[in-house]
Write a structure and sequence with these properties.
Blueprint (H helix, E strand, L loop, with lengths): L23 E2 L6 E2 L2 H11 L6 E2 L8 E2 L2 H12 L7
Antiparallel strand pairs: 1-2, 3-4
GO molecular function: zinc ion binding
Protein name: C2H2-type domain-containing protein
InterPro entries: Znf_C2H2_sf, Znf_C2H2_type
């Protein structure tokens, strides 16, 4: 009876580091997203859009891409007395 092992070591059990995949990268900025819908939303509402709503309140400097955010801000911070929205 001869019993022999093959000399080759099987190494396919080696754990591989799993890279964090963020396959959806914005081409216009550094942002990347795991899901396409997030990138689409980013492109539509965030990227490539200047904040177009600015608070008029003296030395406040708040600005937002969303009118509703500015409105909220003005009511919260300045009791709504600053901007005419
Ligand atoms: Zn972007
Ligand atoms: Zn304001
Ligand atoms: Zn403000």
């Amino acid at each position: 009876m001869s019993k022999f092992k093959s000399g080759r070591e099987e190494t396919n059990d080696k754990p591989r580091p799993v890279p964090v995949l963020v396959p959806f990268k914005c081409s216009q900025c550094e942002k990347s997203y795991k899901y396409k819908q997030n990138l689409v939303r980013h492109l539509k509402y965030e990227c490539d859009k200047e904040a177009q709503y600015h608070c008029d309140y003296e030395s406040c400097g708040y600005s937002s891409k969303f009118k509703s955010n500015l409105k909220k801000h003005c009511y919260r911070k300045h009791n709504g007395g600053c901007c005419k929205i």
